[in-house]
Amino acid sequence: MNNLKKLSLGAISAIPLLSVAQTGERPNVIFIFTDDHATNAISTYNKTLVKTPNMDRLASEGMVMDNCFAVNSISTPSRACILTGKHSHKNGVTVFNEFDGSQQTFPKLLQKAGYSTAMIGKWHLTSDPTGFDYWNIFPGQGQYNSPILYTKDGGVRYKNGYATNVVADLTIDYIKSLPKDKPFFVMSQHKAPHRPFQPRPDLQEKYKGRTFPLPETFWDEYEDWELSVKGNKMSIAEYFTNSDLKITPPPGLPADSLAKWLATAPMELMVDGKKLTGRELVQYKYNRYMQDYLACVEAVDEAIGKVLDYLDQSGLAKNTIVIYSSDQGFFLGEHGFFDKRYMYEESIRMPFIIRWPGVIKAGTRCDKIVTNVDFAETFLDIAHVDIPSDMQGRSFVPLLRGEKVKDWPKSFYYRYYHDPNEHGTPAHYGVRTEDYKLIYYWRLNYWELFDLRKDKIEMVNVYNDKKYAKVRRDMTEELYRIKKEKDDNDELADAPLKSGIVPREKYASPRIIQRNDL
Ligand code: CA
């Protein structure tokens, strides 16, 4: 597709000597991105858990995508899908393996087309970023308090800094440093609210003791799930540990015993002089989880507010697109779980909120299915850069413009590979349409089919229900059609798991910068 065709001929002939940035034809983009932020923890999507006024502001001035999904619901693969516009089996990042930075990515194409490009914060792809004028990233997962970030020139420790604040400030500092005659694309990527859900102390205090409504599937006993959740290690009841609960360890434990203690999930607990066991204890764990997770979310919301304020003050707001998204969803107690990975709704659903002044009608929502494989194409389209034919998604700029797109895809292909893994999630692939979801656990030879019209919370597997025989046939056909369309020949299905680890010398002996966030 040649996107230059989309520029009006009038615009081109009237101002041929001005750069595209000066004509306002190519907007700046700030892509604010977090790790593991469930849509249910954003008041734009769900008002029952937390208030996120700055995300809501973005939504009220822009568009909310209500059906945005990750095609492989885990951090590193999702990031690789976004950079390449390709599924995991094409970009090579099926699990936590190292990203091959020599391949085509949208930042490289934007850079070539004259954009200033930057990557700030959580990268999580092991290899050094490519395609960026500037990058400044956490090693691996990074840490919340006094984080280290490193550039090609070495590391800096932000002593008494809080990661979310630091990323927001670095983002603004970078934008301030830019030349005015080029558009920019800045990826501002937070660690939060990823495990260990470590809030800033003032917010930890604010959320202390709060209780939260339980999701309706919280006490799911997995009667209908059989093999898919057998051996699973993501239930709050059994796997939310002393470390997750931030309980102070008993004094004097030797290192190996301490590690074991931290990784233990207590089955009884003294809280305010009362011994909690059974369901009371599970509910206590859930509330502790929500307190810390949502406090981390609130810091992200503040960080977004800070960036929006800067754009207003600097006059950049009118020609700068602001996007908020996260690498996948997260279970917040649904089915009793924390974590992600599964092809179930809470795990695969990504937030996507976008403000584009003058193009997107304020306060609109879109229910079409889009995925993280569509992001690269969309970003290139926004920048009027040709979309390479080997990218596997599709630009959703027409949807953002509010156009009716008759042939918009009504399904998407999902594949999760990381098996075995610390949460015991079996590998699977599947297809989700607007009404149904079919999942195949290929190592278990086990199928699930959900009727999303009647069962949005996915409690009833109808795969063996005779009433669904036709749906099952149609969905199976659709699964193999889309698997073929995406050219997945199972080549990487059982590729050996190789974790990528950032060599320590890249950020050893960091320079110290003092902050006072903590
Ligand atoms: Ca993640």
List keywords for this structure.
single chain; 518 residues; alpha/beta; Alkaline Phosphatase, subunit A; Arylsulfatase, C-terminal domain; 8-stranded mixed β-sheet; 4-stranded antiparallel β-sheet; 15 helices; 19 strands; globular; disordered N terminus; binds calcium ion
Descriptive report:
This protein has helices at 9-14, 20-23, 53-60, 75-84, 88-91, 106-112, 163-176, 201-207, 236-239, 255-262, 278-314, 345-348, 375-382, 397-400, 469-485, and strands spanning 28-34, 63-65, 68-69, 116-121, 134-137, 148-151, 154-159, 184-189, 269-271, 274-276, 320-326, 352-355, 364-366, 370-371, 411-416, 428-433, 436-441, 446-451, 511-514. The protein is an alpha/beta fold and 518 residues long. The protein folds into 2 domains: 5-11 and 24-198 and 288-396, Alkaline Phosphatase, subunit A (3-Layer(aba) Sandwich), CATH 3.40.720; 413-516, 2-Layer Sandwich (Arylsulfatase, C-terminal domain). The protein is globular and about 60 Å long. It starts with 8 loop residues before the first helix and ends with a strand. It binds calcium ion. Residues 35-36, 75, 327-328 line the site of calcium ion.
User: How large, in whole angstroms, is the Cα Rg?
Assistant: 23 Å
Q: How would a crystallographer describe the biggest sheet?
A: 8 strands, mixed
* Category from helices, strands and their pairing: alpha/beta
Compute the number of structural domains.
2
What is the straight-line distance between the termini? 49 Å
| Helix run count | 15
Bound molecules: calcium ion
Low-confidence stretches: 1-23
Number of E strands: 19
Under CATH at level 1, the class of the largest domain stands as Alpha Beta
**Fraction of residues in H or I helices:** 25-40%
**CATH-defined topology of the largest domain:** Alkaline Phosphatase, subunit A
- CATH superfamily grouping of the largest domain: Alkaline Phosphatase, subunit A
Tell me the β content.
15-25%
